[in-house]
């Protein structure tokens, strides 16, 4: 069960720019997690201006869209942004909340028993409202961003206290805790509630923490990153989708989930918007997972090592 | 066989500052590689002001110091620097070349058949001169820095053409090639000569490239980095020391070497200067290698993965 935006984006990177295209956190999370053998469903809101084609695309990927409310006469959430040359930073050019401003999410009865809940980036009160409608989820994953730290701190702290996993980027983790060291930062976030903390470092990979252990997944070194939009959401979709498919929420299995998250994100950035995620085969995913193995797995036999 | 500076450093970080302490590329490379079961030896130069204690320390670690020339009446190379708050950048406060200005390295006869040669950061002509005195090394590893790109480009290109492996940091790789993408950058560097390219990204780990493959070793996530001085040299010492001990220069074994490099560097930054490297047990190294395994190794069974 995914809650998050389904939206229009207009994106500019050094490689080009797009008109209004399909975007939104729930869109990327949904497309990414649809590659796993799970039943996924989106709760979101769009305006009457939202093309049926976009909704059909989501349906065609096996995503249940019963929970996407279409507001008569309303306009869909719109974001536009421009990336700087290194693609690590971006400026928001325009944000039109539109129908999102009054979004009161209603989780369809058929979704309420979902075991895996992904709270995509939204106002923390909307995330809380969704969580309260769920019966007894096995795992709740939260994504958020610095905007809510600046504008809805108390609500954000409340939702963080109620989730099992938080995914957050490095600068946001530092802002949330006042700690520069990501190790210290993760520990402080963990004390706020989540048993597992995932810190996303963009092109520098992602770290997974629980109270005792740390795991690191690199980003795939790419010749070019065309458009980072949605990479974090795609990561979260791969992470949660893999966990939902396997049903195993041990730290050991979360390591695999982080690798799948990183793998799915590595596709997302290869083309503009959702384009790459719309056309992605199981064969390509398996090949990329093999690339991640080659990239990270080594064979040091410690027991056989010298005894000086 | 190591060539590089043996020097005095004065270091300031947010955690404190030191007076003139033992430093220099060859010192860090030597201390790091001395933890492997090899015969290592340094070619360098110091002044008459260099304390016997420092030389005795190197000898006590099993490093042959016959090739460290002591210039009568000369003063030892001195560097002082101050790190910024994030420890990723630093300002050089003072550089006194002293005896390094006229250094004409002479490789002792007993070193000339060394199979593994580590050319630590120095003027490229000094590195070339050392290389010309070697009989038939099995593997030559070069470290360099942006200073030589700005001041001795043609000489630098000559030495790069003659080595098997280059270690270089990310910004330097970009400067050397004009490519922002590290994948493209590594390919261009490889075309300049080295079969293997190691790009060091500091706290973000290190990448190993050959013509077909990429491997990534993370830096160990630490609560605090006290002093990054010498971390790159310590990495190079661990990398080359491991390869020299095993005698295996396949890409597969270089993966292990990069992990050892990253592991040794993770100790170096825990205390000021060489302090941590002077007091490091085999047990600690093995424990840290186990940490690197836990940090990076996962268990995705691709063949068993869903066939959607």
Task: Explain what you see.
2 copies of one chain form a homodimer. With about 300 residues, chain A is α/β, with parallel strands linked by helices. The first copy, chain A, has a single domain, classed as Ribokinase (UDP-N-acetylmuramoyl-L-alanine:D-glutamate ligase). Chain A is built from 11 helices and 14 strands. Chain A has helices at about 25-35, 50-60, 125-135, 145-150, 155-160, 170-175, 180-190, 230-245, 250-270, 275-280, 280-295, and strands spanning about 1-5, 5-15, 15, 20-25, 40-45, 65-70, 80-85, 90-95, 115-120, 140-145, 165-170, 195-200, 205-210, 215. In chain A, a hairpin with a 6-residue loop joins strand 7 and strand 8 (about 90-95). The longest helix of chain A is centred in the last third of the chain and has 18 residues, at about 250-270. The model of chain A has no long low-confidence stretch (mean pLDDT about 95).
